[in-house]
């Protein structure tokens, strides 16, 4: 033991921990940086499609971790595990006091910490980016922990493969093989009953797993990794049957449950409404913070409809068909179209789409052409299309029939706008009582 004398005090200098060199100067920091960059670049390539939505962020992180992170973790573990074979130091290490299992864990745990740390850093950056523009809901931290355990299991399994196969090309080939296998397991066929075993198990953004699915996935991935480690390094290799049994049981449960692993999120089943408008405006609770923006975007419609009768009670934002006295709010999901980074991408276009839901006669395959001037006049008055001017110019440039159609539209718009307030409310009340008709019977004229 080295003794350092400082004045009259003797301080025993402790030897560095054997894991210190692996953690600080080994291959681990490079592997962690590779995972961080890979996941960050994958997320950054389409940030406008997940930033602001917690469920979308969860799905993007989950996909990046499973489809890209797991093959990279397998390759990192394989390369690190084959280090002694490439250096031809296996016999020297075999004579050490520590057994094979202790040596394997001492070599692999620092790498696991770096890989998981790289993923955690990328996930933290993604969560921070979403937090600034969050539209509602809350983070899904259990999914991130599950992905971290799967990555750790991949590192350990790769470590075992590297010790068995010390070939330099084993690591990249294992990464490619892992990527192909995960892709085929996840996306290989429409009715793939084994897809729940994939680390990229698909779900909808408005769905959450049953409470035990993360535990089963941890048992499945961790059990396979534990089986590989114990079968390779344990003194009594029969103990490898224990994690193998756990993996088989978890895998069987996942496969047999199938689509039942996911159910609609309680948040996605709830709506948040502004009842001060006519019609009322309700949004899915996942987009709760967008309600003021949507109310403002539709204020032109709701303001002009004040006092009008025969209107739907509310705009609704739930899965499935709206009730008889409701109309569907224009879709907010998927993020990246109508909503980008917590903001409505085009409020004017969104208002036009909402207005179209009120008077669009969507149930009619071929509405009577004589309804066109009337419907267009209502559209123009409530929320004109952003492309209205372009459409008018196109009709003007075409033949006589289209020009006559344009003249009829312009005349109807002028007559509706020229009405007094009370007359227009009465006319609109009569009009909205007939929006489910495909012919002109009962529809007021202009």
Task: Characterize this entry briefly.
The chain is an alpha/beta fold and 446 residues long. It has 17 helices and ten strands. A four-stranded mixed beta sheet has the order 5-6-7-8, with helices on one face. The chain has a two-stranded antiparallel sheet with strand order 1-2.
Strand order of the largest sheet: 5-6-7-8
Characterize the overall form.
elongated
The structural class is alpha/beta
Overall pLDDT confidence: 88
Overall strand count:
10
Total DSSP helices: 17
Amount of beta strand: 5-15%
Distance between the termini: 102 Å
- Alpha carbon gyration radius: 31 Å
Order of SSEs, N→C?
EEHHHHHHHHEHHEEEHHEEEEHHHHH
| Helix content estimate | 55-70%
Enumerate the spans where pLDDT stays under 50 for 5 or more consecutive residues: 1-12
Q: Major β-sheet, in short?
A: 4 strands, mixed
């Amino acid at each position: 033991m080295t003794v350092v004398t400082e004045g009259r005090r003797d301080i025993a200098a402790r030897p560095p921990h054997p894991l210190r060199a692996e953690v600080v100067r080994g291959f681990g920091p490079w592997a962690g940086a590779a995972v961080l960059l890979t996941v960050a670049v994958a997320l950054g390539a389409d940030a406008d499609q997940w930033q602001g939505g917690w469920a979308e962020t969860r799905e993007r992180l989950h996909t990046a971790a499973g489809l890209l992170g797991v093959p990279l973790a397998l390759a990192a573990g394989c390369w690190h595990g084959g280090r002694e074979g490439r250096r031809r130091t296996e016999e020297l290490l075999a004579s050490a006091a520590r057994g094979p299992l202790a040596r394997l864990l001492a070599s692999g745990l620092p790498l696991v910490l770096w890989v998981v740390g790289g993923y955690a850093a990328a996930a933290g950056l993604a969560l921070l980016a979403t937090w600034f523009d969050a539209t509602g809901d809350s983070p899904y931290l259990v999914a991130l922990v599950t992905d971290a355990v799967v990555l750790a299991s991949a590192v350990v399994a790769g470590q075992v493969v590297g010790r068995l196969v010390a070939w330099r090309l084993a690591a990249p080939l294992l990464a490619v093989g892992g990527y192909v296998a995960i892709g085929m397991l996840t996306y290989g066929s429409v009715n793939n009953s084994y897809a729940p075993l994939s680390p990229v198990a698909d779900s909808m953004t408005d769905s959450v797993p049953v409470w035990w699915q993360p535990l089963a996935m941890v048992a499945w991935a961790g059990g396979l990794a534990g089986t590989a480690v114990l079968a390779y390094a344990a003194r009594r290799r029969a103990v490898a049957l224990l994690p193998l049994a756990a993996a088989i049981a978890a895998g069987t449960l996942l496969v047999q449950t199938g689509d039942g692993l996911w159910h609609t999120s309680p948040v996605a089943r709830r709506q948040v409404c502004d009842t001060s408008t006519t019609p009322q405006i309700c949004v899915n609770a996942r987009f709760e913070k967008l309600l003021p923006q949507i109310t403002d975007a539709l204020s032109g419609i709701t303001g002009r409809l004040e006092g009008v009768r025969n209107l739907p009670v509310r705009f609704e934002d739930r899965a499935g068909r709206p009730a008889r006295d409701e109309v569907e709010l224009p879709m907010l999901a998927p993020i990246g179209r109508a909503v980008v980074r917590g903001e409505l991408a085009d409020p004017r276009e969104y208002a036009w789409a909402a207005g179209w839901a009120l008077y669009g006669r969507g149930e009619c395959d071929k509405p009577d052409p004589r309804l066109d001037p009337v419907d267009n006049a209502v559209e123009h008055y409530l929320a004109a299309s952003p492309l209205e001017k372009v459409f008018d110019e196109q009709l003007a440039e075409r033949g006589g029939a289209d020009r006559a159609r344009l003249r009829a539209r312009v005349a109807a718009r002028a007559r509706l706008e020229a009405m007094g307030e009370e007359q227009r409310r009465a006319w609109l009340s009569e009009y909205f009582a007939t929006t489910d008709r495909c012919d002109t019977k009962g529809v007021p004229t202009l």
